[in-house]
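User: Sequence in, structure out. Go.
Assistant: Echoing your sequence, followed by the structure tokens.
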Amino acid sequence: MPRVKELSHTDQLKQVGFGRPSPRHGLHLLHWFCTKCLYVNRNDEMVSLCDPDNEDFGFHLFENRFDQNFGQLLPNINFPYYVVGNLNRDGAEQLPEYVQEAYTGDYDDSNKDRIIVSFKHGCFDKVYVTEHGDEWNYDPDKTYRINIKVIKYISRKKSTIFLSEMGVGSTGTISCAVTPPAPYRKEVGIKINNAAEPSSGRGFWDYCVIL
């Protein structure tokens, strides 16, 4: 079973280099996810404000396939994983401008970062950040689970403050004061099509088998 290192403090998140340097978008994506896509209730459950099953914001199934070199990226579970962050994916245009602003559409690092979540009964169970190591695979040595303490910390921060703490800048100022709407509580029915082809697009990372 894969062992994924857990990040329990933002200092660790900064040290591992996720989402840096520019034009990478991972830290912008993570701030959006923590402030706009979930809220943490009194039981420390990460209640979804997005609908991954409906492919909101470019969410789509992550099948956790076996890679010929590294095996599976994440542990096997009995409910689905979803991935978000492909800026060339249908639905990604719903992401805020400050997440998309550095995307070039070229063969560079501006679309390599992703968030992968496990999703059960309307809640995100675990949250991972990762990046593409090449055009086909995510890098297991750059894949980390984000502790809920970090999720809660980011959810209280303005984007400019959080990004500054992480050593990057943003042209946008996003308020993180969230009044949670009615949570998404849909029971999820999953049909995985292993033969499905990835959607076509112009971005370098969009030809990955594991998108």
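User: And one key feature?
Assistant: The first helix runs from residue 10 to 16.
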